[in-house]
Here is the input.
Amino acid sequence: MLTRMSKQPPAFQASPAPLRPRFWETVPLRRMTPAEWEALCDGCGKCCLNKIEYEDTGEVDFTRVACRLLDGETCRCTHYPIRHQFVPDCVSLTPKS
Here is the structure.
């Protein structure tokens, strides 16, 4: 797993609405727009790993198998803005999730 340390969330995806300056420091979570929630992604790629959920306990384990859209070199989705067309249950950051 690759992680990036940054004072600013990466804006690697297309955003339909402009992001407010330094929103991650000034806007309460409940007031963030969907685009701002998506921009919080730090690009670690962990959400792109296939997971196993055990029915009896609800415990979730990560596998070493990644989504077909994940670029292993950059740890970025190759089709991020339209990823749901290829992987309908792809993770989207929201207040609920």
Notes: Residues 34-39 form the longest helix (6 residues). The two ends are 21 Å apart (CA to CA).
